[in-house]
Amino acid sequence: MGCTGSKRTRENAKKIRKPKPWKHSEPITRTQLMRMRDEFWDTAPHYGGRKEIWDALQAAAEAELILAQAIIDSVGVIVQNDDLTICYDERGAKYELPKYVLSEPINLIHEN
Questions:
Q1: Are 84 and 75 a contacting pair, CB within 8 Å?
Q2: I need a labelling partner for 37 at 20 to 30 A (CA). Which of 24, 58, 73, 107 fits?
Q3: Cα–Cα distance for residue pair 29/71, rounded to 1 Å
Q4: Which own/partner pairs from 46-51 qualify as long-range (CB within 8 Å, at least 24 positions apart)?
Q5: Backbone phi, then psi, for 27, in 5-degree steps?
Q6: Within 13 Å of residue 83, how many CA atoms lie on the same side as its CB?
Q7: Which residue in 28, 51, 10, 8 sits closest to 99, CA to CA?
Q8: Residue 19's Cα: distance from chain center in Å?
Q9: β-pair type (108-109, 94-96)
Q10: Which parts of the chain have pLDDT scores under 50?
Q11: The whole model's pTM is what?
C-alpha cells in the first residue's frame, strides 16, 4: 500500500459556509457594523500574516459563497473552520476572522 501526501488538494479542501446565526452583545445598526468591519480590515494585517492573504480573505468574506470558495482555493488558504473564522496560509500563519465580518447579527437594527 502506498502513502498519500499531506498536501491539500482541491478534492479534499474544506467547503466554506456562512457562519451560524449569531447575536451581537447589544443591538447595532448597519452603519455601526460597517464601521466595525472597516476597522477590522484596516488593522488586521498589522497583527501578522501576509497582506495579500488578508485581502483575499476580505474579498471572500464580502462575496457570495461560490465566488468566496474560488478565492480561497486560488490563494491556497487552508480553512480550519468551514465558516472562515480560522484559516492558515501555506506558510502556517494563522488568520482569525470575527463573525461580524462574515455575516450580520440576528439583532441588527434596520435603519430607515
A1: no
A2: 73
A3: 29
A4: 48/93, 48/94, 49/89, 49/93, 49/94, 49/95, 50/89, 50/91, 50/93
A5: -55, 135
A6: 13
A7: 28
A8: 10
A9: unpaired
A10: 1-12
A11: 0.84
